[in-house]
From TrEMBL:
Species annotation: Streptomyces noboritoensis
UniProt family annotation: Belongs to the universal stress protein A family.
Alphabetized InterPro entries for the sequence: Rossmann-like_a/b/a_fold, Universal_stress_UspA, UspA
UniProt cross-references to Pfam families, sorted A to Z: Usp (PF00582)
Domain UspA: 13-149
SUPFAM superfamilies in UniProt: Adenine nucleotide alpha hydrolases-like
Protein name: Universal stress protein
Lineage: Bacteria, Bacillati, Actinomycetota, Actinomycetes, Kitasatosporales
């Protein structure tokens, strides 16, 4: 016997959105926020701090810079949530990891038991050759992936 359909119990419970400060990632965050609101899902905003060993070997303060970016993104998200608090309620968390964007998003989606992943389309021309994070996530086939232009 199958379980009958129950209104309000289907759909994603955890939506992961990758942000890096680019315009497309901020559009993805806005889209994911609307989806999370409509589905009453948790929005997990994930920033993956890139590892740049060559820069670190030359003494560049890469960790400080990416940490500042993470703090800035978290503050921007908090401010946006506060501005719309009375008309737009979304449960959200901010997560930051270190590594490559694809690996970090996969790790976050796995650990949070994500039901969906939302990312912005790549703005880099080089990704046409090596493949973008979005394409790699889609090819992984582990979650529904929405790519926002």
């Amino acid at each position: 016997m199958t379980t009958p359909f129950e209104r309000g119990t289907d759909g994603p419970k955890v939506i992961v959105v990758g942000v890096d400060g680019s315009d497309s990632s901020l559009r993805a965050a806005a889209y994911a926020s609307g989806l999370a609101r409509r589905q009453n899902a948790l929005l997990a905003v994930v920033y993956v701090q890139p590892l740049v060993p060559a820069g670190a070997a030359m003494g560049a303060p890469i960790a400080d810079t990416t940490g500042e970016i993470a703090e800035g993104l978290a503050e921007e998200i908090r401010a946006a949530a506060e501005r719309v608090r009375d008309i737009w309620t979304v449960r959200w968390e901010f997560h930051t990891l270190r590594g490559d964007a694809y690996g970090g998003l996969v790790a976050a989606a796995d650990s949070l038991k994500a039901d969906a992943v939302v990312v912005g389309a790549s703005e880099s021309a080089g990704h046409r050759i090596v493949g973008s994070v979005a394409v790699r996530l889609v090819k992984a086939g582990r979650w529904p992936v929405t790519v926002v232009p």
